[in-house]
Amino acid sequence: MQENLLNKIKSLAHAQREEVIAWRRWMHRHPDLSQEEYCTMEFVAERLREMGLEPRTGIGKTGVMAMLKGKGGYCVALRADYDALPIQECTGLAFASEKPGVMHACGHDMHTCSLLGAIKILIQMRHQLEGDLMFIFEPSEEKYHGGARMMMEDGLFDEVMPNEIYSFHCLPEMDFGRVGMRKGKYMASTDELYWTVKGKGGHGATPHLSVDPIVIASHIVIALQQVVSRNAAPMMPTVLTIGKIEDVGGRTNIIPETVKMEGIIRSFDPQWRLRTHELIRKISCGVAEAMGGECSLFIDEGYPPVINDDECTQQVYDNACRFLGEENVEWLDLRMTAEDFAFFQQKIPSCYFRIGIHEPGTPFSNLHRPNLVIDERSLELANGLVAYNAIMALKNKIKQ
Fold it and tell me: Are residues 154 and 220 in the same domain?
């Protein structure tokens, strides 16, 4: 029985391979930035209508949700994200982005079209469904406050609260044909940091008459390295990065009044996360005051950590081993990247896993880079595996 199900799903995934690739290439040519995904929303909704479903659109402004009814009583949700990034593409692909300065550089086009392909398989296999399925197409994953939270605040789960939820993300450093996941803590929480350092401006040739905020900001940057190196326990992964420093009004011979800085702090432990906020504020303001200036800090609390449910993750692992062979499935290390799927995880047991997209023997290109290219065979693999895992999740009902 198990083998017959696997072979049927693989056959359906292969049969629709070209159609799914065509969908993905269309999306890649027509990317939409976060909170502007109206064209993408209509594209997805139209594909779902063609399959006989009745999608709800406009959830969280530009999100889509659809249900596939089976035997009821238990619901498994499948989620994909579909916003693009403000990046100028330089892949040279025949289907490269037609929108200047906007690109699917994170693989969300692959995620969305793989889920559409999985849905098409599941509709054809609906007699196998031991419950209901919810399909979530999430906007604005790349932009805080995140589409997951926006959709939930807009009533995504008001009528049906899923028992389990699953999502995947492509992984360029993993070869096509391989899949990975991790139980428990997997991806970090993320908070954005915004400093304003104030001094006293003046002429660059008479610095003794000024309080130089550039020097103060530089000392703050160096002092903040102690947050991780001398305050974080060695077994407590933490990243603090200052990604932007700019003066307001300075030039070669002008000491500005103000310097602004931006950065991130990422960690896994809720208590330590709050402690880092306290340390960053204390160090920043203390350094500025000691040097005759002042500092204000705004901390924009972002996504919580991605924490996979053990049972859901073991289920994905077991299903992937059956689908691909155990030799092609691996347990992954912690990652300091972040994901707003974590908001769903706070309410629903889940697993967030990875699918390799690197074509062996070709140059590596990372996520969020203008030269990201995926091995399109990963689409067939993804829509087959996602469909198989959904059917098995409903059969197992591990969270009933």
Answer: no
